[in-house]
Amino acid sequence: MSRGRDSLDGSVPLAARARAVQPFHVMRLLARAHELEAAGRSIIHLEVGEPDFATPEPILAAGQRALAAGLTHYTPAAGLAELRRAIAGHYGRRYGVDLGPEHILVAPGASGALQLVFSALLEPGDRVMIGDPSYPCYRQVLRLLGAEPLSVPVGADSDFQLTAERAERAWSPGVRALVVASPANPTGSVLDARALADLHALCRERGAALIVDEIYQGLVYRVPDVTALALGLDDLYVINSFSKYFGMTGWRLGWVAGSVESIQVMDRLSQNLFIAANTPAQHAALAAFEPETLAILESRRLAFETRRDFLLPALRELGFRIPNRPDGAFYLYAGLPERVREDSMAFVTRLLEEVGVAVTPGHDFGDHAAGRHLRFAYTRDLDPLAEAVERIASFMERL
Amino acid sequence: MSRGRDSLDGSVPLAARARAVQPFHVMRLLARAHELEAAGRSIIHLEVGEPDFATPEPILAAGQRALAAGLTHYTPAAGLAELRRAIAGHYGRRYGVDLGPEHILVAPGASGALQLVFSALLEPGDRVMIGDPSYPCYRQVLRLLGAEPLSVPVGADSDFQLTAERAERAWSPGVRALVVASPANPTGSVLDARALADLHALCRERGAALIVDEIYQGLVYRVPDVTALALGLDDLYVINSFSKYFGMTGWRLGWVAGSVESIQVMDRLSQNLFIAANTPAQHAALAAFEPETLAILESRRLAFETRRDFLLPALRELGFRIPNRPDGAFYLYAGLPERVREDSMAFVTRLLEEVGVAVTPGHDFGDHAAGRHLRFAYTRDLDPLAEAVERIASFMERL
Ligand SMILES: Cc1ncc(COP(=O)(O)O)c(C=O)c1O
Ligand SMILES: Cc1ncc(COP(=O)(O)O)c(C=O)c1O
């Protein structure tokens, strides 16, 4: 390919909806962080949205066994029957929810699961209510599918979550679904059973579906670990994944729970969009629910809790505003101290350049007060966290 | 979940475009085949669209090493830099095409790659020309994205391929892209360098993009192994995958080659739709281009060639119409013998029930003469193939 060819000799422009997908700011920061590291600088990464832990040993071992056995062909689009049963069984054992495997469809990550639910539910032009801030892919994928995200600003007063009351006020014609995450990214906030029930009741009353993203399920600290599935499956879709609690981000394995009819439709969508999820990953994930694995996961959960209990007061001490204690995931969504006048984007850039701490600006998660917020991910151990706090402190002193 | 809940208590209907995605007929056949097998019947599976071979040993070993090393975190959305380099290098070594890694984006299968290319290129309402018959997911995924497949009947006279001449005749306003596969599913037919160049010239003249699905690349028998990338990358997208030639179907790993600008846009789409492809699979695939692996793949290619050379004359002998020798993939697309009056759907159902041979009816690949065609996949070894031919012969005698 000659150099000239790389650029725009082509006559077919790319689609506007594709070009409208903006890069995440954190990607530019990450690239810069890697440059600084290559130049010998020490960088502490608090921008990373995945556990620092590798996948637990029993899952790795099961994956290796699957490979040794040559289990490398396509699986059914809805996933291995044993895995669907294992996931359904997990809801029974851990959450007391009685659910058959026909309600579970295995997907390539919660990412794939979200795409399936959105595709199954939405016609072009349908509106979907989401909180602002929230996980950025919701609105991007919705737009790619021709649906319209209806972003509703949510603040510390509602723990950065859509409440039934707030959703009701913001309701508008054409809203066909509402998406919440619990625990949430970027805020770590958790919806309790009551808040979920109220949202579900509102949705049912308005003829909309409730989509609950439970990808951080299990990563909760001193609050009840709940699932929206306790509410049944009428107009309710639950998204989940082996990525976070189970430490399997790179394996690309998640699932969706829904009514049998919706699972059948999503099965056919999946045949066309994905064929199926990764086969060795599915065999490996069978080991995710073994007692030995669950013990490892529990100790990791406690490690995250300890980190949160260290980082939260330390950041507050430095003037960051985190009014309510975030009870889940591995994120703290912090308001910039009053006296900081610059935008969060400028702030995180300087923080990285000057003291080598990488965090994510609020802009990646929406527009509402995004310039005043940062996301800290405690996906690093206590020592680097302590070092990060010292570096941030020295940076703040110089402001 | 109580039984009543499983059905349609919910008030939110699924989207029409999702419900319009029809199940593949082969899925019903497969389910029936499994039932028969469970009841003790012997079934020969010639409906399976993936190699019977497991993934080659060196790739399995590399995957196991990746797991042992805990390489289980997310990769960049465009794929591991080493893998992008290895794929680009493969084009240089094998096809004499000089291509940088910035032209390659790793995706979750050719499936993921197709979705990215379609999403990057198409606005709602755009038309995309495809041959009928062709791989069914093209038209389903296009419709999900709001684009309009323009199916052009192609027959044995053009080797079941869109030619420039035929495409020109069928051209209509709003055609923004044209999709061909070479070698093709379901026909095994191969486009030579000249045919590709003519299609590309036509597309460029008309301001459309050419999308070439090369997923069966390498699986060609006594004809040149070519790539459309020899034509450059102006308005050209090449889809490929580790699934077929490399024997990695269940790993869900493919790629797309395109202009740098398009790769950058698809990178951002991928961040949102997929996050990335499976990590252990990407590390494993680095071993796909090693001499040891390539030697295994070459011996498998020869095995497929031997099977084709057995099955093609045997089916012709039985009266199936396969005018031109299919030169690639592992499929024979056969016209029913004149004297068979029933539809291919009825024929394959009886073939399965009466003599335990499973093949795919033409209906899964389009509408054009679908009732008169079957797809035989030679993804079984010579012994079962010979047994299948005997069973089909005895079935035909009784017709
Ligand atoms: C809230 C939320 N949902 C979904 C995802 C997608 O994760 P995956 O596709 O790895 O399951 C993420 C990943 O960060 C997330 O934070
Ligand atoms: C022509 C063609 N393209 C694309 C695919 C998708 O394959 P994968 O997603 O496994 O790479 C297939 C699978 O059968 C195919 O036959």
From TrEMBL, chains A, B:
Its EC number is 2.6.1.-. Its cofactor is pyridoxal 5'-phosphate. CDD domains: AAT_like. Residues 43-392 form the Aminotransferase class I/classII large domain. Pfam families: Aminotran_1_2. Signal peptide: none annotated. Keywords: Aminotransferase, Pyridoxal phosphate, Transferase. GO terms for molecular function: pyridoxal phosphate binding; transaminase activity. This is Aminotransferase. GO terms for biological process: amino acid metabolic process. Belongs to the class-I pyridoxal-phosphate-dependent aminotransferase family. PANTHER family: AMINOTRANSFERASE, ASPARTATE AMINOTRANSFERASE.
